[in-house]
Specification:
12 strands; three-stranded antiparallel beta sheet; nine-stranded mixed beta sheet; about 325 residues; Rossmann fold; alpha/beta
């Protein structure tokens, strides 16, 4: 703290220390500018925060995040803990929330993107039984989800090529339209009301690990964009949701159509400020330190989180098909 205050002082910006918070990977130092009182300027409440990486990181597992965040866990079958804020609070994603119904994830190689997706899969599986949620995994890299093939929540085998991915999205669109017809017949507006009044149908989450690898051909790119658009626009009410990730967050992959229909934005470490702006509409993600360090934005305030690791223990619990089994 002394070094930080001295650095501001050397820039002729005097500050006073306002305390600190120790997070899993950072210490957030708080300082308050010392302003001279004048006739037109008055000091305001608040502080400037500076995040400094810790010398010794604390391992952050999905089980630990789950236990800490149990008290504010959403009452939703499609919720999972995204990560821990520096103040120790847990941020949960709830795909029934209009601000989170679809998630765009961007990050360079080694940033923790695939780890985040694996955490989402296992978090969703631990949160609800296979009768309440079905998960489709699309993995063009062929390595991200190979050990999750036995998960009882999966709607089928992991999809690994672009033609199969297109057919899978076609089936999901057909399923969505069929659900809307059932809603119309039962005079309800969405899956929540339908499940209260009729035989429940499961929510369905499709998770795509490397969307950019599916867009090699122009004709397939146009069709994939259209499919994501349709599912993003109409999927929430039908209980169908998308989590889409790419390690190439450039304008050719993350188009305005994709951004508009995936409302929650997650940026892990990226190479450039322009990559950060494409995901978050602002710079900053280029300064992250990788390994699950992330910024989230969209219709929410910008938040910095540390994503958890999935261990064999949590995978084993999810494989059992029984939610709420984390001790």
């Amino acid at each position: 703290m002394r070094n930080l205050c001295s650095a501001f002082e050397s820039l002729r910006l005097p500050v006073e220390p306002m305390g600190y918070i120790i997070g899993p990977r950072f210490i957030r130092y708080k300082v308050k500018p010392i302003l001279d009182k004048g006739s037109t300027a008055q000091p305001q409440a608040g502080y400037v925060s500076v995040d400094v990486p810790r010398d010794n990181n604390e391992p952050l597992t999905l089980g630990k995040v789950w236990r800490i965040g149990a008290k504010n866990r959403p009452q939703s079958v499609v919720a999972f803990p995204m990560g821990m804020a520096i103040d120790g609070s847990i941020f949960w994603a709830d795909l029934t929330d209009p601000n989170m119904t679809g998630i765009l994830v961007g990050g360079a190689s080694g940033s923790g993107k695939s780890v985040f997706l694996r955490s989402a899969v296992i978090g969703l599986a631990l949160n609800a039984s296979p009768e309440n949620i079905r998960i489709t995994l699309i993995d063009p890299k062929r390595v991200s989800f190979t050990d999750l093939e036995g998960l009882p929540h999966l709607a089928g085998s992991v999809v690994m090529d672009d033609d199969s991915a297109i057919k899978t999205l076609e089936r999901l669109i057909d399923e969505m339209e069929q659900r809307y017809r059932r809603f119309e017949e039962n005079k309800v507006q969405d899956i929540g009301r339908f499940n209260q009044e009729s035989n429940p149908i499961p929510h369905h989450v499709v998770i795509i690990d490397e969307y950019g690898d599916l867009m090699v051909h122009k004709d397939k790119k146009a069709y994939l964009e259209k499919s994501v658009q349709r599912l993003g626009q109409k999927g929430r009410a039908a209980g169908i949701h998308i989590i889409l990730a790419t390690q190439r967050p450039d304008a050719k992959v993350v188009t305005p159509i994709i951004k508009a229909n995936l409302v929650l934005k997650v940026a892990l470490k990226v190479a450039t400020a322009s990559n950060s702006s494409i995901i978050l509409d602002q710079s900053g993600a280029e300064y992250l330190i990788g390994m699950g360090d992330m910024l989230i934005a969209g219709n929410l305030y910008l938040e910095r989180l540390q994503g958890p690791l999935v261990t064999g223990t949590e995978i084993g619990m999810a494989m059992s098909g029984r939610p709420d089994t984390i001790p």
